[in-house]
């Protein structure tokens, strides 16, 4: 985990990490949220809709933004204030997702950073883009 | 910039941040008078005030200002109009 304080941060700072959204995570997400939509839970149904495997819940992919701020940028001192996300392409079960966050703006008075977020799959396709406002507590 | 002009522009800022066109500000308006003015929206309010008046609110004053009158004082001071 990173421990950046507000003064350690600069516009343009960027971090990336990889995550695999596998069957266990899909099943846990279904249990937590109660979203039993078959596109995410039934392989044959997903295949009938033209996908080679179950489609990952968009909100599960988006949840990696929590990790981005809470673990990487800024890490320990983060307090997420807002999140926007656009789901550009479906994420398929077992895709390796590269999450990248870059500081695009900083407000010194309230110690808040803005992050531009992009997620790409292991085929180099952009699957999600988003923005976050994160307070840096320290 | 006069105090009245600040009030006029600040009222618009409040109306936009809180999405409420009925907001009327006075010197003694506090967070108790505006239902959605919580710590979360206070941060958005400060950022919006800084943009509107092209100022920086000193960090120490972000959480200590007690009412709108004090916010107007800070705007006038930081914009060099006081």
Your description of this structure?
The complex is a heterodimer of chains A (138) and B (82). By secondary structure, chain A is α+β, with helices and mostly antiparallel strands. Chain A has a single domain (6-136), classed as Thiol Ester Dehydrase, Chain A. Chain A contains five helices and five strands. A five-stranded antiparallel β-sheet of chain A has the order 1-3-4-5-2. In chain A, a hairpin with a 5-residue loop joins strand 4 (112-120) and strand 5. The longest helix of chain A is centred in the first third of the chain and has 11 residues, at 23-33. The radius of gyration of chain A is 16 Å and the shape is elongated. With 82 residues, chain B is mainly α. In chain B, helix 1 crosses helix 4. Chain B has helices spanning 3-17, 39-53, 59-62, 68-78. Chain B starts with a helix and ends with a helix. The interface between A and B is small, with 8 and 10 residues.
Summarize the structure.
The complex is a heterodimer of chains A (138) and B (82). Chain A is an alpha+beta fold and 138 residues long. In chain A, 25% of the residues lie in helices and 36% in strands.
List the helices and strands and how they pair.
The complex is a heterodimer of chains A (138) and B (82).
Chain A: E1 14-20, H1 23-33, H2 38-41, H3 43-48, H4 58-62, H5 64-72, E2 78-87, E3 96-107, E4 112-120, E5 126-136
Chain B: H1 3-17, H2 39-53, H3 59-62, H4 68-78
Helix pairs in contact in B: 1-2, 1-4
Strand content of chain A: 35-45%
How many β-strands of chain B, per DSSP? 0
Question: Within the CATH hierarchy, at the fold level, what is the topology of chain B?
Answer: Non-ribosomal Peptide Synthetase Peptidyl Carrier Protein, Chain A
Main sheet: strands, sense, barrel of chain A? 5 strands, antiparallel
- Round the mean pLDDT of chain B to the nearest integer and report it: 93
Q: Which CATH class of chain A?
A: Alpha Beta
Determine the fraction of residues in helical runs of chain B and give it as a percent range: 40-55%
- SS-derived structural category of chain A: alpha+beta
> Which regions of chain A are unreliable across 5 or more consecutive residues at pLDDT < 50?
none
CATH architectural label of chain A: Roll
Major interchain interface with per-chain residue totals: A-B, 8 and 10 residues
Number of helices of chain A: 5
Which overall shape of chain A is indicated by the principal axes computed on the Cα atoms?
A: elongated
Strand order of the largest sheet of chain A: 1-3-4-5-2
CATH-level-4 superfamily name of chain A: Hotdog Thioesterase
Q: Terminal Cα separation of chain A, in Å?
A: 15 Å
Report the mean per-residue pLDDT of chain A as an integer.
Answer: 96
């Amino acid at each position: 985990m990173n421990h950046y304080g507000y003064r350690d941060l600069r516009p343009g700072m960027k971090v990336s990490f990889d995550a695999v959204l596998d069957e266990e995570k899909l099943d846990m997400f279904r249990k937590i949220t109660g979203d039993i939509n078959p596109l995410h839970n039934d392989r044959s149904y997903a295949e009938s809709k033209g996908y080679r495997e179950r489609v990952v819940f968009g909100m599960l992919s988006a949840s990696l933004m929590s990790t981005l701020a809470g673990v990487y940028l800024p890490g320990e001192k983060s307090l997420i204030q807002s999140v926007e996300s656009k789901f550009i392409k479906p994420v398929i079960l077992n895709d390796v997702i590269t999450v990248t966050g870059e500081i695009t703006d900083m407000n010194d008075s309230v110690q808040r950073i803005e992050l531009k977020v992009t997620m790409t799959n292991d085929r180099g396709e952009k699957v999600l883009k988003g923005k976050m406002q994160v307070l840096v507590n320290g | 910039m006069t105090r009245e002009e600040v009030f006029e522009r600040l009222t618009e800022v409040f109306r936009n941040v809180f999405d409420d066109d009925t907001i009327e500000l006075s010197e003694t308006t506090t967070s108790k008078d505006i239902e959605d003015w919580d710590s979360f929206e206070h941060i958005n309010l400060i950022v919006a005030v800084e943009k509107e008046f092209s100022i920086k609110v000193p960090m120490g004053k972000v959480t200590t200002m007690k009412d709108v009158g004090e916010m107007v004082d800070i705007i006038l001071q930081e914009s060099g109009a006081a």
